[in-house]
Amino acid sequence: MLSVEGVDAFYGDLQALWGVSFEVKEGEIVTIVGPNGAGKTTTMRVITGLLKPRRGKVVFKGEEVTGLPPNKIAERGISLIPEGSRVFPYMTVYENLKIGAYTKRAREHFNESLEWVFTIFPVLKERLNQKANTMSGGERQMLAIGRALMTRPDILLMDEPSLGLAPKLVMRTFDIVKRLNREGLTILLVEQNTRFALKLSHRGYVMETGKIVLSGTGEELLNNEYVKKSYLGI
Question: What pLDDT is stored for residue 97 in this prediction?
Fold first, then answer.
């Protein structure tokens, strides 16, 4: 479904990605793990058109989308949940969800999508007219995921969804990831919680200093001696 091929990306003169290549097949959960500054978020920015690579390409469903503006990429079925549960703080839950349904396809299925989101997150239906800045961190994360689902994506990109959440909410977030995948959504996950992320993933990649250094199934990476020592503390 998604292929990143030999991507080099820069911020000014500073190179952030070096020949990054990986793929996500339809129906998979694929995780990219690695330390802060490894290039994980930069990779998400390249895929979604927020950063144009200097070399390499991004192919989605057989069509190259490299360098397209973010709104055009979103229209093709790629949706990003950015790091930090970013929602529109002074808008209500309903207004945030409505903004998510801005593409033609999403507008046509607005009511259906809204009910789907409410099925997954009943609390959002209860807080429909509440402003986002009055909600807890966990509730804002639910809203951020719900807003992304309103676009009716074919692939969902999640950047550090567990960041800043209490342990109980972290588990809840990963349960949601599994549920969405069971319902047919392909997911690319960037996550520092290596153990939980690889446990739920079909495949994974380890990124360090802007390069993919390891790849394998989630189980293979969990059992890899380097991953154990560097990321799991074993």
Answer: 95
